[in-house]
Amino acid sequence: MNTRAWIVFLDESGVSLLPQIRRTYSPRGRTPLLRHRLNWKRASMARALGYHSTDPDRGARLCFHLKPGSYDTAGLIEVLEQVKVFYRGERVVLVWDGLSAHWSRAMRAWVAEQDWLTLERLPAYAPELNPVELLWSSLKKRELANLAGDHLADVADATEQGIHRINANPRLPWSFLAHTGLTGLDAL
């Protein structure tokens, strides 16, 4: 396998207009009230977090995709087309979990036609090995916490703010990777 590539971890998560309730501080006797419309509108987000296998000075790269509903094989191929543009044709080793859409016949056929992409599978039941899980946690505890938006665009805007926050601190994406214990990317 060519190790002069980006190692990209990709994961999806669902979001909705129902707020993620988190504890907060307030003055004694002034319990904050979270008002929102009871709206079950849902969307799915895919995030890709990439590290260069041989040149850590190139920094980590983070991109995300938002889609109403949930991802299927066609939706994930659309995400991968964006990843291809995002990495400008550089070699990518994509690491993701065992979701059936990731390994469907149509996905494998599409990947077989891509000379820039290699797929690797995370072990089953091992979210602790995926640094994107820590990214989700960071976003859901900060930007998406107690967010009572009226539209999915509000959730997308908050997520984009979180991505800017994470990108503004170049050590943060590397801390997600370090937390997984996967340190020798060049060994991939």
From TrEMBL:
GO terms for molecular function: nucleic acid binding. Residues 7-144 form the Tc1-like transposase DDE domain. This is Transposase. It comes from Streptomyces guryensis.
